[in-house]
Amino acid sequence: MGLYGGLRRGIEMFGFLAPTPLQKKAIPAINKEDELIVEAVTSCGKTVSFAISVIQQLLELDRFDQILVIAQHFEASVAISNLIKSLAKFTRVTCIDCGHANEFNSMNEFAGSFDRTTNIIVGSPYQMQFLVAKKTFYINSIKMVVVDDADKLFEEGFNDHVSTVFNSCNPSVKKVFLCRTVTSHVSQSARQLSSNLVKVLMESDVDLSKFKHYYVDARKDDRKFALLCEIYRILGLNKALIYCNSDLSSYELQKRLQKQGIRIIEIDTLFSASFEQKNSSKISATVVSDNYKMNVDLDVELIINYDFPMFYETYKQRLNGRLSNVKAMVSLVTGFEVN
């Protein structure tokens, strides 16, 4: 794909020996198009694709040019920044995540300490809006703005924050929106910011026929927890990944399972858990929502949909993560979900 030697070395050191078919499609598109919306399920490679693309483009531009990346939240900005730093390790490209702002007394103090020559700046919508308003960046140096998880940001009402960043840049700035699902609302929100969007669909290549699928009729939502505990009593939840439809639901389920004496890996400790911890027989399950990005490989044999996904693509997405040894998916269904 014509990548620079230092970037290729960083990619190989990170553990990627060859691009996936999806990445072969996405990386040239991100490099070529000026206004792009990419639809791809989690763990199929869109974050790596855009990271490689922005590093490659910066190596082709002036050494003081910049790219802004708007992430969904603090944890996402840190993860994206760490990925970019690893891939760009053997290049001149520099990157900072605005999570470091927490080390300062205020955002004003952080903005005052900001190195304006940094090539890639990653931050949340609030942080990016603040830094742009403070004229922290050289506007003429900004060549691209990437909005990661754009569908989630638009659904959560961050349209104005993203719009402020775009309006502060030159009209010619390149715009890239990365989404898991492009609904009509997401498409409309993106086109209000960028009228000539080219869409790239990175379809999931997961083969559902390779897995066994079981559906358990819970009849009512308040019976699902009792059924989950019964599954634990009969089968055990060792090496199980339990999905909920929201962060709040997953947090509440974690606490309820812990009260039952069931040992789990919590979402906020999953990133720092060692391999031995993740595969310990003392750990019974991992509870996550669809917002969780699978940045580590998990030895999982069973996936449980505590909350049945609202979209078919989400169902496939839950089987498309960086998982090994998955054999089956069990879904607890109620009401209309039975059909």
From TrEMBL:
Pfam families: DEAD (PF00270). SMART domains: DEXDc (SM00487). It catalyses: ATP + H2O = ADP + phosphate + H(+). One of its GO terms (molecular function) is hydrolase activity. InterPro entries: DEAD/DEAH_box_helicase_dom (IPR011545), Helicase_ATP-bd (IPR014001), P-loop_NTPase (IPR027417). It is an enzyme of class 3 (hydrolase). Keywords: ATP-binding, Helicase, Hydrolase, Nucleotide-binding, RNA-binding. Residues 27-200 form the Helicase ATP-binding domain. Its EC number is 3.6.4.13. It comes from the Eukaryota. RNA helicase. PANTHER family: RNA HELICASE. Belongs to the DEAD box helicase family. The Q motif is unique to and characteristic of the DEAD box family of RNA helicases and controls ATP binding and hydrolysis. This is ATP-dependent RNA helicase. The lineage of its organism: Eukaryota, Metazoa, Ecdysozoa, Arthropoda, Chelicerata.
